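Researcher: Hi, I'm a grad student and pretty new to this. My advisor asked me to get structures for two proteins we've been looking at. I'm not sure of the right format, so I'll just paste the first sequence and hope you can take it from there.
Model: That works fine. Here's the first sequence with its structure tokens right after it:
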Amino acid sequence: MSLYAGRDHLPFWRNLLRDAVPKGVHLIVDLPSGYALWGLEPPPAPALVLTFNRHPLYLLDLFERRPAGVLPAPHSLDALSEALQLVARGHRVGSPPTLPFDAPTPRERQVLRLLAQGYCADAIAEALGVKRDTVYTYLQNLREKLGAASQHELVLAYLDALAQPNTPNG
């Protein structure tokens, strides 16, 4: 079985989906939130990403990794099994979200991803080759666009922690 998840979540999902993942298909369980973005470089193919994070920017970032499919919070194991079978037959599952707000620029989204990974403004500036003041401008723009009062709220919203449903082992 080709199943990927964060270390603390893998045993649960392996037991639950023992025979559900078709041969040749990789299932990436995005737990903890962010694992599908940062846990695998590069992601295996073909892969279906199962995520419980429904934030549109996060989903857009997942789709940009080019998996065969992204399945946000399936309502049943049957829905997950159907998506896995579609991927096994070479079909794509899901589509990138339409952003319901003034969308952040690609650079602002890059700053948000680094912030969510724990980078401080100085480290983001160094990673992107820009000045710290430029990073602060990006962060201010993100707070305005996403309605966040602080950098902490930006990260929590992006990782969907403010509205995160109870998840197995989570």
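Researcher: Oh nice, that was easy. Here's the second one.
Model: And its structure:
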Amino acid sequence: MPVGSVSIANILNRINQITAQKRSGNREDPQLKAEENRIIQELSSIDRKVRQHELAHKAAGGQYAGPPSYRFVKGPDGRLYAVAGEVKIDMSEGKDPEDTIRKMRQVIRAALAPADPSPQDRRVAAEAARKLMKAQMELVKQKTKEYQSEKPTNLSVSQPKINILA
């Protein structure tokens, strides 16, 4: 989940400005400290949202989801804050149509699990839905073929014999 690149770029620019001001000797400037604290609060909020977002993917994706990976920014306090992340998910088809259907349903749940799915999350869900529909069509064809092979081929009905001499 990338957080708005404009806001991250803005934060990075502000961090660079603070660093430059500190180098020029304004280390104890109260406005500088206040700006540092605002940036730290913003980064903490972004970090929390990014981690929650990626953990939602991981939890819903189960065995098909890899571990979350993150991109970090170093804050003015020296700590690393997650500003973007991703969870790789296995989008391959299953061993048969029924397996693919189960798997793609879980992939869709995983892609849409966060409270605020990203455009990439929605693309993954759409691709999984396409594979799900394809597997459903394959399953219908398979079941139709099985049904047709079980039907009797000779549909003639024999007439009952009636003994009128009895």
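Researcher: Is there anything I should tell my advisor about the second?
Model: You could mention this: The mean pLDDT is 89.
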